[in-house]
């Protein structure tokens, strides 16, 4: 799976192909392909369904900064989030829907001021999308379950993947001491 993630990142960086192109297609019953092709697993190993809410629902449920980052692809200031320097063991989940995204054993100190990880907990729990905002091409990281903006992924991380998932603290919740059941697919 690491090869697929790296391959998708490289190909999407050059704008040749989207690893997530299936999400634009519809299944025969009208469900989105994301709901059909992706399996979301909770911390307890239970299967989770996709989360779809209106902008008004998200706005009512999230704090203003969390709404700005998760739903409007904003960015929190460096070195200000709760988790950039967190050294506790546990699981980082999406602050919008609770989907497990990253394990503390893949977190590393990048010096950027945001939590950085070299691998998601399950590749199907994140979506990678080309981002051409601000006059540059980057790869945006989204929660695959609710579509919440998490941050970006870069190819300057440590081994074994060489990736750096640079994630906003406000996009995450942390479950101290948690372990992911069936971590690898």
Explain briefly what this protein structure is:
The protein is an alpha+beta fold. Helices cover 18% and strands 24% of the residues.
Give the helices and strands, then pairings.
Elements: H1 2-13, H2 33-37, E1 40-41, E2 47-48, H3 55-61, H4 64-72, E3 90-94, E4 100-103, E5 107-108, E6 116-117, E7 126-131, E8 138-143, E9 149-154, E10 164-167, E11 172-176
Structural notes for this entry:
18% of the residues lie in helices and 24% in strands. The model is unreliable at 1-36 (pLDDT under 50). It is α+β, with helices and mostly antiparallel strands. The protein is globular. It has one domain (2-176): Metal Binding Protein, Guanine Nucleotide Exchange Factor, Chain A (Beta Complex), CATH 2.170.150.
The general outline is globular
The biggest beta sheet, please? Answer: 6 strands, antiparallel
Ends apart, CA distance between termini = 9 Å
Q: Which range does the strand content fall in? A: 15-25%
Q: How many domain regions?
A: 1
What is the fold-level CATH name, i.e. the topology? Answer: Metal Binding Protein, Guanine Nucleotide Exchange Factor, Chain A
The share of residues in helices is 10-25%
The pLDDT mean sits at 83
Q: Which structural class matches the secondary elements?
A: alpha+beta
Q: Indicate the radius of gyration in whole angstroms.
A: 16 Å
């Amino acid at each position: 799976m690491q090869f697929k993630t790296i391959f998708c990142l490289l190909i999407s960086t050059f704008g040749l192909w989207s690893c997530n192109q299936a999400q634009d297609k519809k299944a025969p019953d009208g469900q989105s392909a994301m709901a059909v092709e992706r399996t979301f697993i909770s911390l307890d190993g239970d299967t989770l369904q996709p989360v779809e809410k209106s902008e008004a629902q998200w706005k009512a449920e999230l704090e203003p900064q969390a709404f700005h980052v998760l739903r409007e692809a904003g960015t929190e200031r460096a070195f200000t989030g709760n988790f950039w320097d967190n050294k506790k063991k546990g699981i980082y989940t999406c602050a919008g829907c609770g989907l497990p995204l990253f394990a503390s054993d893949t977190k590393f100190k990048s010096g950027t001021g945001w939590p950085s990880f070299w691998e998601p907990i399950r590749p199907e729990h994140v979506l990678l999308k080309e981002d051409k905002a601000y006059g540059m091409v980057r790869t945006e990281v989204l929660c695959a379950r609710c579509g919440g903006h998490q941050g970006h992924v870069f190819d300057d991380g440590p081994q074994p993947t060489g990736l750096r998932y640079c994630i906003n603290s406000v996009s995450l919740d942390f479950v101290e001491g948690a372990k992911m059941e069936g971590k690898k697919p």
